[in-house]
Every structure is written in structure tokens, then in C-alpha cells.
Amino acid sequence: MAKIVIFSGAGISAESGIPTFRDVGGIWDNYKIEEVCVAGCLDTNREKTIEFYDKRRFELENVKPNKAHLEIAKLKQKYPNEIAVITQNVDDLFEKAGITDVIHIHGFLKEIRCEKCEFVEDIGYKKIKDIYPNEKCPKCDNLLRPNVVFFEESASLYIKAYQELDDCEMIVVIGTSGGVVNTDILIQNRYSILNNLKKSIYINDELYDDVIYKSATEAIDEIVMKIERFLNV
Ligand SMILES: [Zn+2]
After folding, report:
1. Which domains can be identified in the chain, with CATH numbers?
2. Per-residue pLDDT at 158
3. Which of the following is catalytic: 106, 110, 113, 145?
């Protein structure tokens, strides 16, 4: 198990131009969250839901990792076993930065999976229909879906993530409001760093050892320094 867990959310990818739910404008204008991101939406609104994730996957192709992803990748390369990278993001910016074992607790946009069996496939930036014209699983013929966790669905990777979190000695929280995953609970009994652009109503920042209110790219050098110091004590 890793000594240090870096736990990130939308804030780390925002500077690469990936819109968050709360951003106004762009792709989100044509979709309601409750129609395309909530458990059951594939049953009631399949076409629009598939279209929404196809578009987001397509958009990912030209998005580049920012300094925060790149610095974390460098650190991970230097200390492969000491650091675990867990993210709530479904984008591939950590992968583009060179990390191969990111734990995506809310799924991974480039992947599709079968609704019934274990089939999972990375389809790159393509639409599901481009690879499987009738959107059916090649193994069992049931319907395929984006391998993304919708609101109110359970996340199977939480177990793996919590194992890492349970065992680690230091947690670095970057770019998350704490609204979906309560980070205040995760940091108990270990050294913790919080980096967000601004204060969040879901996070009690008094619980954290270090608090940095800056963008992730502005804060990353300081964070890397603190991590290296912690590892080299
Ligand atoms: Zn299947």
C-alpha cells in the first residue's frame, strides 16, 4: 500500500479546460444533469445519455494535462510505490501525463462496459456506435454503457480506494469541493494537505494540517515539496 494518497477532483482538470457541472456555457447547456448523469437515466433517456458521453469522450482527445497533472506524474515516476493517485475525474489527463495506475473511483470516460457482464473496453475517443453499431456487448449481447458512475449509483472502486486511504500516512486533497466524497472523514489520523481554489461549504479546513487556497497549477510546486520532504524524513 502507498504511503501517500493524492485525491483529486474536478478542480485539477478545470485549468485544462474540462467543464465542471457548475460551469455555464458549452456542452452542458443542452443537457440536464438529472437526464444524463443519474442512476436509471439509461433506461429512461438512453439516446441522449449515450450521446452526451460520446460527445464528452470526443472532446477529451484534444485536452492536455496541465502542470498539476504533469508534476504529480513526475513524482509518481520517482516514487512509484509510495504514491497512489485516486481521482473522482473521468478524464484521462493523468494518463496523458504518463500515470498508468490511476484509480478512477467514478469511472473512466474512455471505457465502455456491459450492463450485465464483466466486459470493459477502452474505445479511445470514439462513439460507442462507431465500434459496436447496435451498442450491444460482443460477449453476451446485452446493452453497452459508458463506464462512468452516475449519481446515486454505487461505485465499485470505492473499496480499492478506501483500502489505499485506510493504510496511507498522508493525504493530499486537490481540487474537490467535498460535496460528493466527504474528504474530512478521509484525513483522520494522518498528515493532510488541502488545496482548493477557494473555501468550500462541504469542507472543514480546520481539520487539515496544511491548507492552500490557490489553483492547482499555482499550488503544485509547494505540494510536491511537502510530499518530498515527508518521504525523505
Ligand atoms: Zn456482456
Report:
1. 1-15+64-106+154-233 (3.40.50.1220), 19-62+108-148 (3.30.1600.10)
2. 83
3. 106
